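Annotated sample (chain length 208).
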Amino acid sequence: MEITKATYLISSPTVDGCPKPDRAEYAFIGRSNVGKSSLINMLTNQSKLAKTSNTPGKTQLINHFLINNSFYIVDLPGYGFAKVSQNTRATWEKMIDNYLKQRTNLVTVFVLIDSRHEPQNIDLAFLRKLGDWGVPFNVIFTKADKSTQREAAKHARQFIEAMKKEWEFIPRSFITSAVKFLGRKEILAYIDELNQAFEVPEINQPKS
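Output written by the structure step:
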């Protein structure tokens, strides 16, 4: 699959404000400053589609992008460190949690992990939460260009090994670089595969 059209659609403060759930949807999330917006821009081949910033906490709403007039990519606020008040952080967490649990057309959540670092408890805890809610996810290791290929691969293996201590099934993962377009073809092919199997939910009911 190749993305020929990607347009910004809407930014929503709550899941109720999101577009009608009549298309496949893929959400991207990770720790603040993990390179989420840069990855989305790389996948869509549009350098300014998702707003990028060196300041953690730049993304504050549920941002929908319409891709090829057929499915949605969603840019979610990052979890973890951001220079915001506790009340603001709590509001973000509630917004994200409600989105993840209630969005019926959400096919998978791509959880972004910084490949420069060894496994972080905050990332493993977030995956654990998705598992408790029954939300499908995949893992994307970012910023592979910021270290050697060997080091990025080592940290990816370490993270997968840490997951195996808790998970019986390990979902598909990808190593990426937004600078070198590494992993783009593989992720788009996977999304295309999931799109083929997607069926529009009959009733827009929250996930149990």
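Annotation: DSSP finds five helices and seven strands in the chain.
Annotation: The domain at 6-197 is CATH 3.40.50.300 (Rossmann fold).
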